[in-house]
TrEMBL record:
<dbReference type="InterPro" id="IPR006103">
    <property type="entry name" value="Glyco_hydro_2_cat"/>
</dbReference>
<keyword id="KW-0326">Glycosidase</keyword>
<keyword id="KW-0378">Hydrolase</keyword>
<dbReference type="Pfam" id="PF02836">
    <property type="entry name" value="Glyco_hydro_2_C"/>
</dbReference>
<dbReference type="InterPro" id="IPR006104">
    <property type="entry name" value="Glyco_hydro_2_N"/>
</dbReference>
<dbReference type="InterPro" id="IPR036156">
    <property type="entry name" value="Beta-gal/glucu_dom_sf"/>
</dbReference>
<dbReference type="Pfam" id="PF00703">
    <property type="entry name" value="Glyco_hydro_2"/>
</dbReference>
<feature type="domain" description="Glycosyl hydrolases family 2 sugar binding">
    <location>
        <begin position="49"/>
        <end position="170"/>
    </location>
</feature>
<protein>
    <submittedName>
        <fullName>Hydrolase</fullName>
    </submittedName>
</protein>
<feature type="domain" description="Glycoside hydrolase family 2 immunoglobulin-like beta-sandwich">
    <location>
        <begin position="210"/>
        <end position="316"/>
    </location>
</feature>
<feature type="region of interest" description="Disordered">
    <location>
        <begin position="1"/>
        <end position="39"/>
    </location>
</feature>
<dbReference type="InterPro" id="IPR051913">
    <property type="entry name" value="GH2_Domain-Containing"/>
</dbReference>
<dbReference type="Pfam" id="PF02837">
    <property type="entry name" value="Glyco_hydro_2_N"/>
</dbReference>
<dbReference type="InterPro" id="IPR013783">
    <property type="entry name" value="Ig-like_fold"/>
</dbReference>
<dbReference type="GO" id="GO:0004553">
    <property type="term" value="F:hydrolase activity, hydrolyzing O-glycosyl compounds"/>
</dbReference>
<dbReference type="InterPro" id="IPR008979">
    <property type="entry name" value="Galactose-bd-like_sf"/>
</dbReference>
<feature type="domain" description="Glycoside hydrolase family 2 catalytic">
    <location>
        <begin position="325"/>
        <end position="617"/>
    </location>
</feature>
């Protein structure tokens, strides 16, 4: 049982009925809108977000003065976790340089025999040390990926526990993956105010000693099967069994039990067909038919249930062949929008769980079937809503900006953690380790930098061979599954001249240099590789007249925005030679005023006008299905079920 004293500024009531855990869905439900780890859920968890004590440590004296123990009381203010101190939502709103910060929270937890207490962090940018009651319980480097501390042995017998976090995030270290976070004091050009320290949920979980540690799903659409890889923590496994029940809309697709002979169990489960009468398999997932399969996994020993978790998966394939992208074996046209995932009030942290859902709904309502997450590793709850509502995702590694051995180590380590975290989401169809040669500025002429891009590509393919990998998005591509081009011309006629047919496309790829960069490096495969314009548009409409950055051209009103959007988008839709596009961008972001929506997520032009253009038939895939999504089609409560 998790329990605590009455909450104060540094205390948390784990029995508060308003806590998300109290209303969380039962295991097996495909989406719990509050759970910070939606693909491996248990009901016994508690949200630790909210007020924490906070202190800046600009002089770097905190460790020497034992701030993690009893060294005075330097915590002179309160911060609202998980919002970065730079953001207004944190209650601090200081965008200055503070490379080291500290957090403290007191709570009460009483354990029970045969169980452990785990403390989870969704993400802490960039380097985190964690203590509980003065004992070191975790260290993690990497600002975008989760980590967990087993705090059981550090718990005080009195029940009152204090967790302290030291977060170090250098504003100036360009060898550190930082994405669009600015290294200058004021946000400039296309970079934004920083997101330092804790910026994704912090939560406690009570788990059995013998438990499911990790779970990964890999679908095989041709075989109508899913492969499950489960890691189990158990000292003895001679009598341990794992029961797996897969269901879809109440119908049991599989109910299998396996002996757990090793710490890792991998099994392929063949699924029964549900209904073929609609012309597509109900088992297959796509943006038009986001069919999820709910999963419940139970560890059993001698008839006793030791652990039970809820999850979900889907059957979906993505591939590139003969100049086309194939979704579930059929040609498919990608209509992507670039998303920065930045909110004025909370920066890279979402204002709340509902904001993540609404972001996905907005993508759908504008007519897009996918989103390119640009220079950000998004909250897993966002990906869960993409899974649920049907939005394809291009996932991208936040860039470092200096090439060095340290950069290579940091990029590779964190990229592997990203792949592990997100590999089971059916919405994710593409991995992008590098964007626009950021961090590899001499890529065209440097063998070492080319080797890094190739290494990241092949490493990603080795871990996840069933998704697309774009080694360096936009230009100077040494290896890729999709040729991607960034082209910010403001005239549709120029796009038609460059990409209007196969001959023009080939000339552009081999002779013309959009953005004054060569598209494919020598030796990069081209024949049969599909081509996608992965950044274009960027038309600015500054409704507030803030005179922000207008790098790709500006218009004065909504009509001109729609005209410009129509001119550019239809130029690509009319081409038989390109397989998709990614419009820049979904929302305004600080000084960038080129969103289809304002920073507050308000449309700059009627959304139905944008949608009508986005969903026009593409010449490259004339028989393509067009999603008819409308949020109004969903009755209240349907999206939470």
């Amino acid at each position: 049982m998790l329990s605590v004293m009455a909450p104060g500024p540094t205390e948390h009531d784990l029995n508060d009925p308003a806590s998300p855990s109290a209303g969380a869905d039962e295991p097996g439900s495909s989406v719990d809108p509050h759970h910070p780890r939606p693909q491996l859920t248990r009901p016994d968890w508690v949200d630790l977000c909210g007020p924490w004590d906070f202190a800046f440590d600009d002089d770097g004296v905190g460790i020497a003065q034992l701030w993690h123990r009893t060294g005075g009381d330097p915590f002179d203010r309160v911060i609202q976790v998980p919002f970065p101190f730079e953001s207004p939502a944190s209650g601090i709103g200081d965008t200055g340089f503070h490379p080291v910060v500290w957090y403290r929270r007191t709570f009460t937890v009483t354990g029970r025999p045969g169980h452990r207490v785990l403390l989870h962090f969704g993400a802490v940018d960039y380097r985190a040390h964690v203590w509980v009651n003065g004992a070191a319980v975790a260290f993690h480097e990497g600002g975008n990926t989760p980590f967990t501390a087993d705090i059981t042995s550090a718990l005080d017998a009195s029940g009152t526990q204090t967790v302290v976090v030291r977060a170090e995030d250098s504003p100036w270290d360009l060898r550190q993956p930082r994405g669009k976070q600015d290294w200058q004091r004021e946000a400039h050009a296309i970079w934004y105010d920083r997101t330092s320290g804790i910026w994704q949920p912090v939560w406690l979980e009570h788990v059995p000693d013998v438990r499911i540690r990790t779970l990964r799903w890999a679908p095989n659409a041709d075989a109508r099967s899913v492969t499950m890889t489960v890691r189990v923590r158990a000292d003895r496994r001679d009598a341990l069994r794992l029961r797996v029940v897969l269901t879809q809309r109440g119908k049991v697709l599989a109910d299998d039990t396996y002996a757990v002979d090793h710490a890792e169990l991998q099994r392929t489960i063949t699924l029964t067909e549900n209904d073929m009468s609609l012309g597509h398999s109900d088992l297959l997932w796509s943006p038009e038919h986001p069919n999820l399969i709910e999963a419940e996994l139970t560890l059993i020993e001698g008839g006793e249930v030791l652990d039970r978790v809820g999850s979900y998966t889907a059957v979906r394939s993505i591939s590139a062949s003969h100049d086309r992208l194939l979704l579930n074996g059929r040609p498919y046209f990608l209509r992507l929008v670039l998303a920065q995932g930045f909110w004025p009030e909370s920066h890279l942290a979402a204002p709340d769980a509902d904001a993540l859902r609404r972001e996905v709904e907005l993508v759908k309502e504008l007519g897009f079937n996918g989103v390119r997450l640009h220079q950000k590793v998004e909250d897993p709850r966002f990906l869960a809503w993409c899974d649920r509502l049907g939005v394809l995702v291009w996932a991208e590694m936040p860039a470092a900006y200096e090439f060095s051995p340290m950069t290579i180590q940091r990029l590779t380590r964190e990229w592997l953690e990203i792949l592990e975290r997100d590999a089971s989401h059916p919405c994710v169809i593409a991995w992008v380790p590098i964007n626009e040669s950021w961090g590899v500025p001499a890529l065209e002429r440097s063998t070492a930098q080319q080797d890094l891009v190739r290494s990241l590509y092949h490493l990603t393919k080795a871990i996840d061979p069933d998704r697309l990998v774009i080694g360096n998005d936009g230009w100077e591509q040494p290896v890729t599954d999709v040729v991607t081009v960034h082209d910010y011309t403001s005239r549709g006629a120029v796009l038609r001249q460059r990409y209007g047919d196969w001959e023009k496309l080939e000339h552009t790829l081999t002779r013309t240099q959009p953005a004054y960069r060569v598209v494919l490096l020598e030796g990069a495969a081209r024949e049969g590789t599909p081509v996608l314009i992965s950044e274009f548009g960027g038309i600015s409409l500054d409704l507030d007249d803030r005179h922000g950055w207008r790098g790709y051209g500006a218009v004065r009103n909504a009509d001109q925005l729609v005209q410009g959007y129509t001119d550019l988008v239809t130029a690509l839709l009319d081409s038989p030679a390109v397989v998709g596009f990614c419009w820049t961008q979904l929302t305004d972001t600080q000084q960038e005023r080129n969103g289809l929506l304002t920073a507050e997520r308000q449309p700059k032009a009627a959304m139905e006008r944008i949608r009508a253009v986005t969903t026009r038939v593409a010449a490259a895939v004339p028989g393509d299905a067009i999603d008819e999504f409308s949020y109004g089609d969903y009755a209240p409560g349907m999206l939470e079920s």
